[in-house]
Amino acid sequence: MIRALLLIALVPAVVYGNVGRACTLDRPEPTNVNIIGCSAPPCDLTRGQDVIAYIDFTTDRVVTSMTTVPTATALGITAPYPLPAEFADTCAWLEGSNCPLSANEDVTYRLTIPVLPIYPIVSLSIEIDIVDESNETVACFVVDAQVVPAN
Fold first, then answer.
1. Does 16 have pLDDT greater than 60?
2. Which residue in 120, 124, 118, 111 sits closest to 42, CA to CA?
3. Distance between CA atoms of 112 and 35, rounded to whole angstroms?
């Protein structure tokens, strides 16, 4: 009986892996956020390693280009969490799709977030805002995380 209950509790985390929560201001949410190695927040961000996430979302309009704009909040301070240019170009990391995107197109985006070895050991929330060429949100989510030392 206990095994069955445990299995029921774990299946949604393994199958869906949706670790994101909604952004403020009613911005569109992804349909799924799967961060490799994280089945429930807070997600560990290991110093010196890249975090890989797969974000599924549906466009609500034609989108010519997209940029990923992360913001981190830790210890009550919110600051940009800049991505290297090659990772900030959302269109370059779409799986099975290319920009421009049609309205109501379902896409999967592979996001890479480098975690530098100099980052402090801290709990934080990271907002990922994917914006179009007009700086309008295409999809936005927040994930709770913690920077951890490399083993």
1. no
2. 124
3. 10
Q: Where are the beta strands (DSSP E) in 11-136?
A: 21-22, 32-35, 43-46, 50-58, 66-74, 77-80, 94-95, 106-114, 123-132
pLDDT tens-digit readout, 79-89: 999 899 999 99
Long-range contacts of 40-44 (CB under 8 A, 24+ apart): 40/13, 41/143, 41/144, 41/145, 42/123, 42/144, 42/145, 42/146, 43/19, 43/143, 43/144, 43/145, 43/146, 44/145, 44/146, 44/148
The DSSP code for 5 is H
3-state secondary structure of 9: helix
- How many CB atoms are located within 10 Å of the residue 33 CB? 25
